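User: Hi! Is it possible to get a structure for several chains at once, not just one? Here's what I have:
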Amino acid sequence: MVVGLLNANPIVYKKKERRARNVPTVIDEYAVEPIDEQEIFDYIRDIKDPEHPYSLEELKVVTEDSIEANDKQSYVRVTFTPTIEHCSMATLIGLCLRVKLMRSLPSRYKVDIRVAPGRHATEAEVNKQLNDKERVAAALENPNLLELVDSCLESTYA
Amino acid sequence: MEKPNSWIAHVEAFVDSARASNQQAASVDAIAVLVHEDLLTLEGLVREMEQYLTASDHVIRARGILLLSEVLSRLLEKPLDSRTVSSLVEFFTSKLEDWQALRGALIGCLALLKRTKKFGMVESNDAKSLAESFLRNVQVQSLAVRDRKLCFEVIQRLLDVYPQAVVELGDDLVYGICEAIDEEKDPRCLMLTFSLVGTLGRLFPDPSGPMGNFSSDVFDILSRYFPIYFTHSKGDGLDITRDDLSKALMDAFSSSPLFEPFVIPLLLEKLSSSLPSAKLDSLKYLNSCLRHYEADKVVKHSQVIWSNLKDVIFNLSPHRSSLSTYGSNGDMDSEVNQIADEALNCLQTAISHLNFPDQDSFLCLIIDDEDIGTRFWSVTSIKKYSGTSTEIHCQLSALGSILSIASKVSIYCCTKVFQKFFSCLMDILGVSGKHPSKLCVTDHNTCSDGLNFGALYLSMELLTSCRELTLSSKEFSPEVISEPRSSFYVLKNISRELCDALGSILETPESEEHVYCAVKGLQVLATFPEIYSPVSEATYEDILVMLMSIIARRSKETYLWELSLKALVQIGLWIENAHDSAKATSYNKLVIQRIVSMLQSNDSTISLSLKLVAISEISSIGLYLLRIVQAFEEAIVSNLRACFEGNLKSSDVLVPLLQCYSNQVLPRCHTCGNFNDIAVQVAVSIWNQIENVAVFRSSILMKDVLDQVMMTMKHLVAGCTEESQFLILQKAYGSLPKTFFIAEPLPCALSQLEGLQCIQDTTLMSCRDEWIFSLFGSVVIALRPQTPLVNVKILLNLFVVLLLKGNMLAAQALASMVNKWPADVNKSEISYSLDQAIEEILKSCLWTSESSSNFIDRDSCFHKNVVLGLAWIGKGLLMRGHEKLKEIAMLLLKCLVAGKYVDITPFQQHENGKDAGQDASSPLATFAADAFHVFLSDSEDCLNKKFHATIRPLYKQRFFSSMLPILLSSIKESDPSSKKVVLYRAFGHVISDTPLAAVVGEAKKIVPTLADALAMLSLDILNKDLIYSLLLVVSGILMDNNGKAIVLENVHTIISLLIKLISYPHLMIVRETAIQCLVAISALPYARIYPYRPQVLRAVSTALDDRKRVVRQEAVRCRQAW
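Assistant: Yes, the chains can be modeled jointly so their relative placement is included. Here is the combined structure:
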């Protein structure tokens, strides 16, 4: 099956500099640094888009503002914006996000991944699919799909 | 032709194309050697090879010719008579027709052409016929790359060596070359073709000659390559970069003015390309062409060139909007900035080359450009910097650079620019030379509506470039200045008012940009060369006063303050460089005196630290260094006295003062040469102060002051020569309290020592004595090895006694003495060999430690002193590689093993918490273990390069390899776990302080013990730093190939250890490093580590929830790796 690119010519934005955290001069060995939005963004910003050699950050699929994290309640919500409305890759991007966060966050976390409201044709369906534990697990059983996801995540472990 | 058979075999080997290539090369070499040594004549060779050279089978013929040519190219240094050369040339020339054997013919021609006159070279008519034959017969572009390259080399050689001969060929030659280079694509060949064209341009300068006829064709061929598009990666082995190619093409372009009608339009067209690299290249080419072509040829393009350059400069001027990049080159490497810089370079070339005083010069184009005029007015109408857009600011900086470039070119240009713009600027700024009486009014006006920043900026640019012009122009004519229209004259008239205006800007600064410009302006005005100087003596002094008052009173405004300081330093350095005595006096009077008096007085307007910053900056001016050093000395001495008298405030002053002195000012004295005198003087006066004070008023020791004074003393002494050191030493020795010598001059009477020990237990040393001994110790520490000591015995004794009292410095001084002990006793006055001395020391120490074994618990503090003292002395010995070290090391080891007062297991220690853990286990053993750390670590305080220690190369490695087996065996033997802890501690110190390379070499023995040590030590929180350094050793071993194999053998223990350390609560870097080690382990063979996978993953997933972010990130990486 030969399919043309869904979005042949996406707009590529500039990467933001990685913000350096202001490290306190006197390091308190026992102070707690909670998991925050920036940390989560750092995890997912380098995920490669499934159909282009750009990162999700460059395509503005995810931004730091679209992440909501609460360390105390162990809750993360990521809202992502597919580049075009009918993008069938949306589920795949969502799956990549989910797998990446699953592997990067402690198990106490509940991760919620959503398409930005009004930015996708089958928004509800995609949301449902992404947040269904069973379906995510089933998807990861599929070796082809897993390979695809892993190839997208590869660049995040640099 | 002694052995004809032997070399004929070589010929056969070469001609036979089935043989291996190295065999063929060997046979060529062999024949070349035979010919070179005259065992075989060339004629003979040729005659014998006739059957090959003229064979009808083209393969054999080609090989034969190739052999001959290869032999020739190896015989460049062999003298040949002209007949031989000529016949060979004839032969190869004729063979150029033979396309099947062309390669050999080309190599042969090249080899012959490369010959030099000394060894017989080709005649020029032969060369000419060669060239003719070449042009007639060789179709260069149909050949392979290798052969094409040869062809170009042949042509190049012909052009370079026989220009007369080939020039006669005229049109044919140029046409032939055109044909040859057409459509060339290989970069190696391109480099050659570009230089060919360059040479052609030089050979045929005549516009009506052959080059004139073909110039459009040649350029047509060349222009296809511009701009160079080069995609080869670095590793292609060609060793040619885009820059090389671009440079070569540029030389070709600018080689002949005949290209001018084609080049300049092309360059200007490409200048408007959107590709930055094309822009950059065209600017570079344009620059080079302007330089090389005659001015009258290019001048007709000047209008177009200017408008293009103007576009580039105004559109791509670097953003200097943010303050950080203001004046400094923030990120100047970006392409845009490069382009802008190149455009300005080009502009400068254009102005200086297209400069005709009588007609319209390039400069007039710029000055009279209406566009520039309108921009000038729009830019100078900016009132406030902060409110304007970056666009306007870019325009401002572009305009500024254009004007400054223009005025930098020559005095004539400078005058022109000044006439046109400077007076306008001054009017805008409200400064006018004509009405000095109205000055106050105008000043007032400008201040009230905000000073015009654009005008300020531009006038500063002009001033700066005017100054640079005076620096670069060699010839000086007085009429330049006195001529009323010249820029200098204008400046001179206006400088007074300008200064005042700038000063008033600084009074009430509007923004940092204003401050920057104003300070810069003052600095520029003050640093003109004497003869050109626009400012009068009085104005100059006013500038200094202005800047100084900022330094003295306005330290709160950091930016202004720093800039003023920098400007002052620059002015000072300028005086030093220009040897301007008149200015030097006023600088001295106005700046140095005031700065010095600031140091002495206690005014609160400026904080001490800022004062010190200012003064240390100023001290970089060599001229005044001496004065400043004196001021420092006075301040130090007076503060020291106050300290002794119990003035706590001056101790606060003294510490930073001394810090600044020893870190900033003293190193500068080194470069000035008179360090010795200064140091001796300061050191002696410090000692005098101490002598003068009989008793310290304050009972507090003032530890920080003492430390700093000691450090300064060390620096002072360390920098001196032997003689000066001896002087200081004698002075110090004389200051030692006499009572001490009376009390114990005798060598080590045990009873007396015992008695002394009791005394010191009861009565503390007086504060003053403590100071004296510490300072004396610092003097001794910093001595050079060659400096003779006085009364060595007494000194030794003194230090031993002090050491037993717990003075760490005495131990260090003792160690330095031992370390620098002269190796040859007879030469020096010391009647005492090193061995004896050590015996002595050991006797006194050992005695105490032996007796101590009876009452360890009573006097642990005392033993600590002994052990630490021994450690330092041992280090001194170790560094010079002395035998006696063994004794000391064994002694310490005995302490380690002999600690019998240990009943508490480490587990209980841990529960008991910090204090119990420390005190309950045998403290002596712990100190002994730490002694190993002292042995191997580098110390800042003593025994280092700075303080002239004798350091034997690789001493750490030596110690490591001798101690390791002993430690390992004693660890194995020792039984109770508590004893093991200290042994592990010693072991840990030894391996973590030894250079990693040595440790990795011994990895096989170490790794199991290392793992045990880590496991054991991690139970006590106090060991956290040690654990970290041990983990670093582990990761070092993991990085090594050899080490990996050994880790693999112990993979089970190591992995479980690392997993435990992942949750080490006390130090984040330990956790981080442990995870990194696990990542490294994941690269080991899969089959071996697979069984541990679940275990590791479980441990890492808990680390995902670590307190620290860094650890979490490492954990994510590790999880992925496993």
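The mean pLDDT of chain B is 74. The radius of gyration of chain B is 42 Å.

User: Great, thank you!
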